[in-house]
Amino acid sequence: MDKRTLFDQFHRVESRISSVSEDLQEIQQKLTELIEENTNLQIENQHLRDRIEYLDKQLAPDTVVTEPEMSKSRLNLQKLYEDGFHVCNVYYGSRRVDDESCVFCLDVIYGERGGHGDR
Question: Where along the sequence do coiled-coil regions lie (predicted)?
Answer without folding.
Answer: 10-58
